[in-house]
Design goal:
The complex is a heterotrimer of chains A (367), B (293) and C (281).
Chain A: E1 2-4, E2 10-12, E3 33-35, H1 47-56, H2 58-78, H3 91-103, H4 106-127, H5 139-147, H6 160-193, H7 195-208, H8 217-223, H9 228-253, H10 256-264, H11 269-306, H12 312-321, H13 325-353, H14 355-364
Antiparallel strand pairs in A: 1-2, 1-3
Helix pairs in contact in A: 1-2, 5-13, 6-7, 6-9, 6-11, 6-12, 8-9, 9-11, 10-11, 11-12, 11-13, 12-13
Chain B: H1 15-22, H2 30-50, H3 52-56, H4 69-80, H5 83-116, H6 118-131, H7 140-146, H8 150-175, H9 179-187, H10 192-233, H11 244-254, H12 257-285
Chain C: H1 4-8, E1 14-23, E2 30-40, E3 45-49, H2 56-64, E4 71-76, E5 79-82, E6 95-98, H3 110-120, H4 126-139, H5 155-167, E7 173-177, H6 185-202, E8 205-210, H7 213-219, E9 222-226, E10 233-238, H8 253-276
Parallel strand pairs in C: 3-8, 3-9, 6-7, 7-8
Antiparallel strand pairs in C: 1-2, 1-4, 4-5, 9-10
Helix pairs in contact in C: 3-4, 3-5, 5-6, 7-8
Classes of the chains: A mainly alpha (367), B mainly alpha (293), C alpha/beta (281).
Chain lengths: 367, 293, 281
């Protein structure tokens, strides 16, 4: 069933599930529009009648209430939902949501926003020719360049070197991010869980962290051989700090009551770590990973602009120094797209791994 | 606030603990003792590694190339007497202050507008989200083309860094305001303006605080990066150079490697001080969040 | 008139002897428990009531082993849990706690939650534990919720799952810290029945902290009224209404009498507590 609340949110009920408001306490009427996605039988219970019975004769009221509850329970049990062990999002649900989205004002406002942005750009550079924008490449120039099979400045979707730059940047991000996660999550977990570890390691951590990543550039060039390693190191460092810190925060935010409960049930220290700390910190870890990937891109671009060969940051820098301005814009836009995709990938991975949290948030009905 | 990356803070070390470190009871507290041991161990390791060519016969990889702590200390003592060094401090601090102030004064209203007006949010937020994945530093060349002076272009990029953070945090904070409070206010007849002033504004103050703490860190990152890039990377070591980032790059180019590390540590300290100042202001802004400890 | 279950129950006799607990947050020495002595025979449902912040939870925490006592001893079935030689009782599944705001692991399904104890203690393998958990949940009327997550259930149902999670370990004592505090009246009455039903089946000793006097009288064999901080038993009331009980009990004259007596005792302490400005414990 699909349920449309007055506030606009949408929930879904699968066969065998129950939904609805408990309006017993104040007798107010609540209205919902409901659409059945498949053939459904409807059982209508007049709540006010039940309330009247309960107020006039508590004992009979309780019996009636129990009967109603049993009936509902029996109906539910008779159609046990085929519940798989691990539930992710379902495709039909996603498609349905997309369909609903198109009916609201949101997509059109969004298009309006983009249109405003693009028309501002177009007007200020090519039509009104505002003095400030004199040297800016115009919208049409950039688009033509981007799509042209024979670009004047050398970069377009038809040139293989374009994809080379993208791949090089992506490869660096992947390597740095994976290493940073592989190192950062365990370090963060330990920092949050073990006081001894924290006492020794956190001071060093906190002394190095305030140093901005780019400040490492010269030292990295001096320390590490080649031109690729310094870039990787810088990206890794930024990502590592973000991941480790957020993981540590995650461990610290776990409600201690879960640790106590696990201990009560006989869990050893290691079992508490495995069954409570790690799953409990996962939401924070994933938020940290989203921040981490953003920070990684930030550092990568900066590092590529200063040193290194190939890559989108390098492309931006060299396009500027060789006065190939439209390419700058192309590279910026590409950066935005690629960065966004990687961010979404991390978020989707998180959502998939933590299905329980999505359902919990859905139950709390965030608007 | 799981869906809003960039809002979860990267909190700095507890300032109370930092003071404790300098009190004479340092050695009595096991945590402080371990910290001292750890720092000492790192320094020893650093010294041994950096001078490895001398006592080991060959230079250890990575560590061997770094300037040794004693060289760094000596360089620093010299620099303290050099006015140019302090000018770099001033330059960077000014840029940070300007960028931070701009990011806050534009970001907070923008965020509030996004939060309260759904139409505005409908067309402005997608544009915001479209531009956000582009790292601020990628804007440097475009900014240089656009703005008349190099200083302004650097400031613009610095502003961008803090701006995104502030908006995200304000939005996140507005979302956490209990919808029921707003409903209650509305049912009691409060006007939109009143609801905004008395409910939403105080409600987002904590998030603005968090945003400011995160933003100051990001601002420093961008300042250093921008100083390096515009002063060093693009090959024009002219006009609006200066600042600690440029100082580091210059030291590298000029071959005085110990100065590099001095610069790095200086920025670290500067960043830490700025964060402490911001945190104090934030605590002043949201006194009700002060824990009774 | 003791209930049937006390006779067949051999374990779960708790003895608190002269317990003293001092808190020292920020240098303000606060006496939470002052020479408190209480004997709870095996299989009894002992309800503990008292004003907020008086130290009842402190006592429960000491029994569970979450913190230690400064003096005095707590004994379970003759074995000393904490005493002069060992200030902190070991945390174990013989005394399981059901927490006020619920502590079901949100990242595990209800079934996995319930099966957690036996698996983690290596008493059963995963398959056996899941089977046993399934059975117990069905017995408790929770069939159909096995593969859902706690976040998808109402608070009342969560509490019931949590109690099953505790009882699967066959504990000697069940420690309940105002578990139904946040529930509405209707859910509470369902919970009470469920708890009693479970008790009649297992006979576990129950140490139940509550503010709700009706709840205390309805469920308990005895109601212990604690003084305001520092807490010690002020008055103990025998609830001589026979088990098994049902809701008819609520309107019986004996119930009303007991309610009036106990209410008077509690109100006196509550007024003292209020005057001192006690915060929630």
């Amino acid at each position: 069933m699909r349920l449309e609340k007055s506030g606009g949110a949408t929930t879904i009920a699968r066969p065998g599930e129950a939904f609805g408001w408990s309006a017993l306490s104040d007798r107010s009427e609540r209205r919902h529009r409901t659409v059945a996605a498949s053939a459904t039988s409807l059982l209508r219970l007049k709540g006010t009648a039940l309330l009247d019975i309960m107020t006039s004769d508590p004992r009979l009221g309780r019996v009636s209430r129990d009967d109603v509850a049993d009936t509902i329970h029996a109906i539910q049990i008779s159609e046990p939902a085929q519940v798989p062990q691990r539930r992710g999002g379902s495709l039909t649900f996603a498609l349905f949501q997309t369909g609903q989205w198109f009916k609201g004002p949101k997509p059109y406002l969004m298009l309006l926003g983009y249109a405003l942005l693009l028309s501002f750009w177009y007007l200020s550079v090519e039509v009104l020719k505002l003095p400030r924008f004199a040297e800016m490449p115009g919208l049409t120039t950039v688009i033509q360049e981007w799509l042209s099979p024979n670009p004047a400045y050398g970069i377009s979707i038809h040139t293989p070197v374009y994809y080379l730059h993208i791949l090089v940047s992506l490869r660096r991000i992947a390597i740095a991010f994976i290493f940073a996660t592989a190192l950062g999550v365990p370090v963060g977990l330990l920092l949050g869980w073990s006081k001894t570890f924290k006492d020794y390691v956190f001071p060093i951590f906190e002394m190095i962290r305030p140093i901005p990543i780019l400040a490492w550039v010269p030292l990295a060039i001096v320390m590490l051989p080649g031109s690729e390693l310094p870039v990787l190191y810088l990206t890794f460092l930024a990502s590592f700090f973000a991941t480790a810190l957020n993981t540590m925060l995650g461990v610290k935010s776990i409600d201690p009551v879960y640790v106590l409960a696990a201990k009560c049930l006989g869990a050893s220290r290691w079992q508490v770590f495995r069954h409570v700390v790690v799953p409990g910190a996962l939401p924070f870890i994933f938020t940290g990973l989203q921040i981490s990937i953003g920070v990684a891109w930030f550092s990568l671009v900066a590092a590529e602009m200063v040193s290194g060969q190939f890559g989108l940051g390098y492309l931006i820098n060299t396009s500027y120094t060789t006065v190939q301005y439209p390419t700058i814009i192309i590279a910026m836009i590409t950066l935005g797209i690629v960065g966004y995709i990687t961010s979404v990938a991390v978020r989707v991975a998180g959502d998939w791994l933590m299905g329980w949290r999505i359902r919990q948030l859905a139950m709390q009905e965030r608007r | 606030m799981m869906s809003l990356p960039g809002t979860l803070a990267m909190p700095s070390a507890n300032p109370e603990r930092q003071w404790h470190r300098f009190s004479p009871r340092v050695l009595l507290d096991p945590s402080a003792r371990r910290a001292v041991i750890a720092v000492a161990a790192v320094c020893i390791f650093w010294q041994l590694g950096a001078t490895s060519r001398g006592w080991l016969g060959f230079s250890l990889p990575v560590i061997g190339a770094i300037p040794a702590p004693d060289a760094v200390a000596a360089a620093w003592v010299k620099l303290i007497h050099d006015p140019g060094y302090w000018q770099s401090w001033e330059q960077s601090f000014l840029r940070v202050a300007l960028g931070f102030a701009a990011a806050t004064s534009v970001g907070v209203p923008f965020g509030l507008a996004l939060a309260t007006n759904s139409t505005f949010r409908g067309f402005a937020f997608p544009v915001f989200e479209l531009l956000r994945p582009i790292p601020p530093l990628a804007w440097v060349p475009a900014a240089i083309i656009f703005w008349p002076t190099q200083e302004l272009s650097i400031d613009f990029v610095i502003f961008l860094g803090g701006f995104y953070t502030m908006v995200l945090n304000v939005l996140g904070g507005a979302e956490t305001i209990d919808a029921r409070l707003i409903q209650a206010a509305r049912s009691m007849g409060a006007s939109r303006w009143n609801i905004f002033r008395r409910l939403i504004l105080p409600g987002v103050l904590p998030s603005i605080g968090v945003g400011m703490e995160v933003a100051i860190g990001i601002t420093w990152e961008v300042v250093v990066a921008a100083e390096m890039i515009s002063g060093g990377g693009s090959g024009s070591a002219t006009s609006s150079s200066g600042g600690l980032g440029f100082f580091i790059w210059n030291s590298y180019v000029g071959g005085s490697y110990p100065n590099i590390i001095v610069g790095m540590i200086s920025i670290g300290i500067a960043g830490y001080l700025s964060s402490a100042v911001v945190r104090r202001c934030v605590a002043r802004l949201t006194p009700w969040l002060r824990r009774p400890r | 008139m003791m209930s049937v279950s006390v006779e067949f129950r051999r374990r779960g006799a708790l003895e608190i002897a002269d317990a003293v607990k001092l808190y020292d947050p920020d240098g303000a020495r606060i006496l939470a428990v002052d020479h408190c002595s209480l004997t709870i025979p095996a299989g009894e449902i002992c309800m503990v009531v008292g004003p907020s912040g008086c130290g009842k939870t402190t006592l429960l925490n000491a029994i569970a082993g979450f913190h230690g006592l400064d003096s005095g001893a707590i004994t379970l079935d003759g074995t000393i849990l904490c005493g002069p030689s060992q200030r902190l009782a070991p945390i174990g599944s013989d005394r399981v706690v059901v927490f006020q705001n619920g502590a079901l692991f949100p990242w595990k399904t209800n079934l996995e939650n319930v099966a957690f104890g036996p698996i983690v203690q290596k008493r059963l393998n995963k398959k056996q534990a899941h089977e046993k958990a399934w059975r117990l949940m069905a017995d408790a009327g929770l069939a159909g919720y096995e593969h859902k997550y706690p976040g998808e259930l109402s608070s009342g149902l969560q509490r019931r799952v949590e109690i099953v999670r505790a009882l699967i370990n066959d504990p000697a004592v069940l420690l309940l810290d105002e578990p139904y505090r946040a529930l509405d009246a209707l859910s509470k009455s369902v919970m009470h029945e469920a708890l009693l039903e479970t008790y009649y089946r297992t006979g576990v000793t129950i140490f139940f902290i509550t503010h709700d006097l009706e709840e205390a009288i309805f469920l308990g064999h005895r109601v212990v009224v604690m003084t305001s901080r520092p807490c010690r038993p002020k008055q103990i009331f025998e609830i001589d209404i026979p088990h098994p009980r049902d809701y008819g009990v609520l309107t019986s004259p004996r119930f009303r009498e007991l309610a009036a007596e106990i209410s008077a005792a509690v109100d006196e302490e509550a007024a003292k507590s209020f005057a001192l400005g006690e915060k929630e414990g």
